[in-house]
Amino acid sequence: MFQLYRGLINSHDFDLLERHVIAPDAVFVFSDRREEGIAAVRAGFERTWSILPDEVYQMTDPKWLLDGPDAAACAFRYSYSGTLADGRPLSGGGQGINLFRRAEGRWRLTFEQLTPDTRTAKA
């Protein structure tokens, strides 16, 4: 499921993500907001794509923390890059965690949390 999500996210087609990956009751947590439910998650994705219409999002270095028959958790690194409407480039990244659950025989992404990169944080 992680691979499928990673492959579909740069399509910028939320209908595909909803159909194949994201659970109807998903919760997404970012450093500046929390989105609960598929309508709010859709709005968040579409807001991002409107700011960075050419965004390229990458998810790397997956580490499976839990891999059970009905639940799985994966920590990963992420990065994004794109161009703002005024032509300025924007990029960044950090770390994230995805929680997946099996429901009705299908795996779904039910929780995602992204945080800024802490590798450069001062002690």
Automatic annotation (TrEMBL):
SUPFAM superfamilies: NTF2-like (SSF54427). Gene3D superfamilies: 3.10.450.50. Residues 5-108 form the SnoaL-like domain. It holds the Pfam family SnoaL_2. This is SnoaL-like domain-containing protein. It comes from Brevundimonas naejangsanensis. The lineage of its organism: Bacteria, Pseudomonadati, Pseudomonadota, Alphaproteobacteria, Caulobacterales.
